[in-house]
Amino acid sequence: MTTPADVHEVRDPELPGRLLSVERDALLPLLRARGDGDFALPVTACPGWTVRDVLAHCSAALSRVVESRYEKDVFSPASNQRDIDERAGWTTARILDELEHGMTEAGPVIAKAGGVLDGVALGEWVHAGDVRDALGEPGAYAGAGLPFALALLAQVTGARGHVPLHADLDDADEPVRLGDASGERPPARFIGDGPTLMRLYAGRPVDGVPYELAGVEAAELNIFG
User: Fold this and answer.
1) How far apart are CA 69 and CA 116, in angstroms?
2) Distance of CA 75 to CAs 18, 57, 70, 156, 188, Å?
3) Which of 73, 140, 146, 151 fits as disulfide partner to 129, beta carbons 3.0 to 4.6 Å?
4) Is the pTM of this model over 0.90?
Protein backbone atom coordinates (compact mmCIF):
# COMPACT_ATOMS: atom_id res chain seq x y z
CA MET A 1 0.00 0.00 0.00
CA THR A 2 1.41 3.37 -0.99
CA THR A 3 0.13 6.58 0.55
CA PRO A 4 1.71 9.86 -0.65
CA ALA A 5 3.18 11.92 2.17
CA ASP A 6 1.97 15.20 0.69
CA VAL A 7 -1.51 14.17 -0.41
CA HIS A 8 -3.17 16.85 1.74
CA GLU A 9 -1.44 19.77 0.02
CA VAL A 10 -3.87 19.76 -2.91
CA ARG A 11 -7.46 18.60 -2.43
CA ASP A 12 -8.53 15.69 -4.58
CA PRO A 13 -12.29 16.27 -4.99
CA GLU A 14 -12.88 12.73 -6.26
CA LEU A 15 -11.25 11.04 -3.26
CA PRO A 16 -14.34 10.93 -0.97
CA GLY A 17 -16.40 9.32 -3.73
CA ARG A 18 -13.72 6.72 -4.42
CA LEU A 19 -13.60 5.81 -0.74
CA LEU A 20 -17.38 5.46 -0.59
CA SER A 21 -17.46 3.30 -3.72
CA VAL A 22 -14.73 0.95 -2.51
CA GLU A 23 -16.42 0.60 0.87
CA ARG A 24 -19.84 0.07 -0.72
CA ASP A 25 -18.55 -2.84 -2.79
CA ALA A 26 -16.98 -4.47 0.27
CA LEU A 27 -19.58 -3.74 2.94
CA LEU A 28 -22.98 -4.21 1.32
CA PRO A 29 -22.52 -7.87 0.28
CA LEU A 30 -21.27 -8.64 3.79
CA LEU A 31 -24.32 -7.02 5.38
CA ARG A 32 -26.82 -8.61 3.04
CA ALA A 33 -25.46 -12.04 3.94
CA ARG A 34 -26.13 -11.49 7.65
CA GLY A 35 -29.17 -12.67 9.60
CA ASP A 36 -31.66 -10.30 11.19
CA GLY A 37 -30.32 -10.90 14.68
CA ASP A 38 -26.91 -9.52 13.76
CA PHE A 39 -28.39 -6.07 13.18
CA ALA A 40 -29.52 -5.93 16.82
CA LEU A 41 -25.96 -6.33 18.13
CA PRO A 42 -24.60 -3.37 20.14
CA VAL A 43 -21.88 -1.21 18.65
CA THR A 44 -19.20 -0.50 21.25
CA ALA A 45 -17.94 2.61 19.49
CA CYS A 46 -21.45 4.14 19.51
CA PRO A 47 -22.94 3.57 22.98
CA GLY A 48 -26.67 2.98 22.87
CA TRP A 49 -26.73 2.17 19.17
CA THR A 50 -27.13 -1.19 17.49
CA VAL A 51 -25.65 -2.20 14.15
CA ARG A 52 -28.98 -1.28 12.58
CA ASP A 53 -28.92 2.15 14.23
CA VAL A 54 -25.43 2.89 12.91
CA LEU A 55 -26.42 1.84 9.41
CA ALA A 56 -29.59 3.95 9.60
CA HIS A 57 -27.51 6.94 10.67
CA CYS A 58 -25.08 6.37 7.80
CA SER A 59 -27.78 5.96 5.18
CA ALA A 60 -29.63 9.03 6.43
CA ALA A 61 -26.51 11.18 6.43
CA LEU A 62 -25.70 10.27 2.84
CA SER A 63 -29.30 10.84 1.76
CA ARG A 64 -29.11 14.32 3.26
CA VAL A 65 -25.97 14.99 1.23
CA VAL A 66 -27.46 13.65 -2.00
CA GLU A 67 -30.68 15.64 -1.50
CA SER A 68 -29.01 18.74 0.04
CA ARG A 69 -31.23 18.58 3.13
CA TYR A 70 -29.52 20.49 5.92
CA GLU A 71 -31.52 21.65 8.91
CA LYS A 72 -30.01 24.08 11.39
CA ASP A 73 -28.78 21.30 13.69
CA VAL A 74 -27.93 18.78 10.97
CA PHE A 75 -25.43 16.06 11.96
CA SER A 76 -25.82 16.97 15.65
CA PRO A 77 -26.53 14.10 18.09
CA ALA A 78 -30.18 15.13 18.24
CA SER A 79 -30.50 15.26 14.45
CA ASN A 80 -28.76 11.90 14.08
CA GLN A 81 -31.13 10.30 16.58
CA ARG A 82 -34.16 11.74 14.77
CA ASP A 83 -32.91 10.19 11.53
CA ILE A 84 -32.60 6.81 13.24
CA ASP A 85 -36.04 7.12 14.84
CA GLU A 86 -37.61 8.01 11.49
CA ARG A 87 -36.33 4.71 10.12
CA ALA A 88 -37.53 2.60 13.05
CA GLY A 89 -40.36 1.15 10.97
CA TRP A 90 -38.21 0.41 7.94
CA THR A 91 -37.05 -3.07 7.05
CA THR A 92 -33.33 -3.69 7.28
CA ALA A 93 -33.30 -4.31 3.53
CA ARG A 94 -34.71 -0.82 2.93
CA ILE A 95 -31.99 0.74 5.09
CA LEU A 96 -29.31 -1.17 3.18
CA ASP A 97 -30.81 -0.05 -0.12
CA GLU A 98 -30.72 3.58 1.04
CA LEU A 99 -27.15 3.14 2.21
CA GLU A 100 -26.06 1.66 -1.11
CA HIS A 101 -27.77 4.48 -3.01
CA GLY A 102 -26.08 7.08 -0.83
CA MET A 103 -22.64 5.54 -1.16
CA THR A 104 -23.11 5.54 -4.93
CA GLU A 105 -24.55 9.01 -5.41
CA ALA A 106 -22.94 11.16 -2.69
CA GLY A 107 -19.45 11.28 -4.19
CA PRO A 108 -20.12 13.87 -6.92
CA VAL A 109 -22.04 16.08 -4.48
CA ILE A 110 -19.19 15.94 -1.96
CA ALA A 111 -16.69 16.68 -4.74
CA LYS A 112 -18.51 19.88 -5.69
CA ALA A 113 -18.84 21.06 -2.08
CA GLY A 114 -15.25 22.32 -1.92
CA GLY A 115 -14.16 20.22 1.06
CA VAL A 116 -16.80 20.99 3.68
CA LEU A 117 -18.38 17.54 3.26
CA ASP A 118 -15.19 15.49 2.93
CA GLY A 119 -15.45 14.48 6.58
CA VAL A 120 -18.83 12.86 5.91
CA ALA A 121 -17.22 10.28 3.63
CA LEU A 122 -14.50 9.64 6.17
CA GLY A 123 -17.08 9.22 8.92
CA GLU A 124 -19.01 6.70 6.81
CA TRP A 125 -15.85 4.61 6.41
CA VAL A 126 -15.16 4.75 10.14
CA HIS A 127 -18.70 3.64 10.92
CA ALA A 128 -18.24 0.73 8.53
CA GLY A 129 -15.31 -0.26 10.73
CA ASP A 130 -17.52 0.10 13.81
CA VAL A 131 -20.04 -2.26 12.24
CA ARG A 132 -17.40 -4.81 11.27
CA ASP A 133 -16.06 -4.69 14.80
CA ALA A 134 -19.54 -5.29 16.26
CA LEU A 135 -20.14 -8.19 13.89
CA GLY A 136 -16.79 -9.80 14.69
CA GLU A 137 -15.64 -9.41 11.10
CA PRO A 138 -11.90 -9.19 10.39
CA GLY A 139 -10.44 -6.05 8.91
CA ALA A 140 -12.25 -3.38 10.92
CA TYR A 141 -10.74 0.01 9.97
CA ALA A 142 -8.65 -1.77 7.32
CA GLY A 143 -9.35 -3.52 4.04
CA ALA A 144 -9.40 -2.17 0.50
CA GLY A 145 -10.57 1.26 1.60
CA LEU A 146 -7.69 1.94 3.99
CA PRO A 147 -5.35 3.66 1.47
CA PHE A 148 -8.18 5.97 0.40
CA ALA A 149 -9.18 6.60 4.03
CA LEU A 150 -5.62 7.54 4.98
CA ALA A 151 -5.36 9.88 2.01
CA LEU A 152 -8.69 11.47 2.90
CA LEU A 153 -7.65 11.75 6.54
CA ALA A 154 -4.57 13.68 5.44
CA GLN A 155 -6.76 15.89 3.26
CA VAL A 156 -9.28 16.59 6.03
CA THR A 157 -6.77 17.20 8.82
CA GLY A 158 -4.72 19.45 6.57
CA ALA A 159 -7.75 21.55 5.64
CA ARG A 160 -8.75 21.87 9.29
CA GLY A 161 -5.26 22.86 10.46
CA HIS A 162 -5.24 19.89 12.81
CA VAL A 163 -2.20 19.07 14.91
CA PRO A 164 0.66 18.15 12.54
CA LEU A 165 1.77 14.52 12.63
CA HIS A 166 4.31 12.46 10.72
CA ALA A 167 3.25 8.80 10.51
CA ASP A 168 5.61 5.97 9.64
CA LEU A 169 3.25 3.13 8.84
CA ASP A 170 4.18 -0.53 8.90
CA ASP A 171 1.83 -1.20 5.98
CA ALA A 172 2.70 1.78 3.73
CA ASP A 173 5.65 2.36 1.45
CA GLU A 174 5.92 6.07 2.27
CA PRO A 175 5.32 8.16 5.39
CA VAL A 176 2.06 10.04 5.78
CA ARG A 177 1.92 13.68 6.81
CA LEU A 178 -1.24 14.77 8.54
CA GLY A 179 -2.58 18.05 9.85
CA ASP A 180 -1.23 21.58 9.63
CA ALA A 181 1.57 21.88 7.08
CA SER A 182 2.57 25.46 7.99
CA GLY A 183 5.57 24.37 10.04
CA GLU A 184 4.56 26.55 12.98
CA ARG A 185 4.44 23.53 15.27
CA PRO A 186 6.88 20.60 15.17
CA PRO A 187 5.05 17.51 13.93
CA ALA A 188 4.21 14.73 16.33
CA ARG A 189 5.35 11.22 15.41
CA PHE A 190 3.46 7.96 15.02
CA ILE A 191 4.91 4.53 14.37
CA GLY A 192 2.50 1.65 13.87
CA ASP A 193 0.00 0.34 11.36
CA GLY A 194 -2.66 2.14 9.36
CA PRO A 195 -5.74 0.74 11.12
CA THR A 196 -4.36 1.81 14.50
CA LEU A 197 -3.72 5.32 13.20
CA MET A 198 -7.27 5.48 11.89
CA ARG A 199 -8.63 4.27 15.24
CA LEU A 200 -6.74 7.04 17.05
CA TYR A 201 -8.06 9.76 14.74
CA ALA A 202 -11.59 8.37 15.04
CA GLY A 203 -11.42 8.13 18.83
CA ARG A 204 -11.78 4.34 18.76
CA PRO A 205 -10.06 2.07 21.31
CA VAL A 206 -6.62 0.71 20.50
CA ASP A 207 -6.20 -1.52 23.56
CA GLY A 208 -3.47 -4.10 23.23
CA VAL A 209 -2.23 -2.83 19.85
CA PRO A 210 1.46 -1.84 19.81
CA TYR A 211 2.28 1.63 18.49
CA GLU A 212 4.44 4.62 19.33
CA LEU A 213 3.12 8.17 19.63
CA ALA A 214 5.27 11.16 20.59
CA GLY A 215 4.65 14.88 20.70
CA VAL A 216 0.87 14.70 21.10
CA GLU A 217 -1.66 13.01 23.34
CA ALA A 218 -3.88 10.42 21.67
CA ALA A 219 -7.02 12.36 22.62
CA GLU A 220 -5.78 15.39 20.64
CA LEU A 221 -5.91 13.40 17.43
CA ASN A 222 -9.64 12.64 17.57
CA ILE A 223 -11.31 14.53 14.72
CA PHE A 224 -14.83 13.42 15.64
CA GLY A 225 -14.75 14.31 19.34
Assistant:
1) 15
2) 22, 9, 9, 17, 30
3) 140
4) yes
